[in-house]
Write a structure and sequence with these properties.
This protein is an alpha/beta fold. It has a single domain, classed as TIM Barrel (Alpha-Beta Barrel), CATH 3.20.20. About 35% of the residues lie in helices and about 15% in strands. Strand 1, helix 1 and strand 2 form a beta-alpha-beta unit. Helix 1 runs parallel beside helix 8 and helix 4 packs parallel to helix 5.
């Protein structure tokens, strides 16, 4: 764990780099013209090679690996316990968790797949600054141990432990109670995880507003950042993409991108003595 010497040190990490070209372009734009300092790339994403090429031209952007065991296709050739008859991963983290609870997930397959993802990222010229996980399944017991081992084997210093503390504003919207319950469950897994012994930030924020981090919600988060801490803010920038196969996520991609580039948000960051850093600074 690393601690800020003074003020607030903030990593703004854009997830899902490599998911689509619309997401990739928004990540770069929100870095070059906004507050995004870091991203995490999906080795099995449909636009992975496009993302890797963009990253090569943007050396100021930290790039980690967005370890993926749901929704996409595997990178490794044979991981039978992780895929269905269609050759795809489980369609959602809840489906994956059910299989994990039944003991149907073979950890040797998890290791094979996640190692292959890290190796593919590195083979495309990206040296990962950190590891995190798509839909956060990397914190599940057993899987977290594999991730910790792979981090050490690949010399990757930092890892995300998605433990966002409940805050009062999260209780004001009854529609957000399910999200809050998921957040608390993630926090419990994180507290028991071997990942917490690796290098990480002091605090993590952004899960509660995941996919809906518009300017108002982003302002709410920034105004409540803990002082004298190093914090990671998870975000999901993107561009309008009517043909996206991920429309069912109901993410406010364009609104999030606009918020991350808002001059008002930059002014708020200055007012709160927030210093933007990347994962290479952890």
């Amino acid at each position: 764990m690393t601690r800020a010497a003074g003020g607030i040190r903030l990593i703004v990490n854009a997830d899902d780099f490599g998911l689509s070209e619309a997401v990739n372009r928004a990540v770069i734009e929100a870095h070059e013209n906004g507050i995004v300092t870091s991203t995490s790339i999906m080795a099995g994403g449909a636009a992975f090679e496009h993302a890797a090429a963009l990253a090569a031209r943007c050396p100021t952007l930290d790039v980690g690996v967005h370890l993926t065991l749901t929704e996409q296709r595997p990178v490794a050739q044979s991981v039978p316990s992780l895929v269905g008859a269609d050759g795809q991963f489980a369609p959602h983290a809840t489906d994956f968790a059910k299989r994990w609870l039944r003991g149907a997930i073979v950890l040797a397959d998890v290791r094979t797949e996640l190692d292959a993802q890290i190796r593919r990222v590195r083979a495309h010229g990206v040296e990962p600054t950190h590891l995190d996980g798509h839909q956060h399944v990397h914190v599940l017991p057993g899987i977290a141990r594999v991730v910790a081992e792979l981090a050490r084997e690949h010399g990757i210093r930092a890892v995300r432990v998605p433990m966002e503390r409940p805050r009062g504003y999260m209780l004001k919207d009854l529609g957000g109670l399910k999200r809050l319950a998921e957040q608390i469950a993630l926090g419990m897994f994180g507290a028991l995880s071997p990942l917490k012994h690796l290098r990480r930030v002091d605090r993590f924020v952004g899960f509660y507003f995941g996919g809906r981090l518009n300017e108002q919600n982003l302002r709410t988060v920034i105004e409540r950042l803990p002082v004298r801490k190093t914090v990671e803010l998870m975000c999901h920038p993107g561009l309008e993409d009517p043909a996206s196969p991920y429309a069912h996520w109901h993410y406010a991609w364009a609104a999030e991108t606009a918020a991350l580039m808002s001059p008002r948000i930059r002014e708020l960051i200055r007012a709160h003595d927030v210093r933007l850093i990347g994962y290479r600074d952890v």
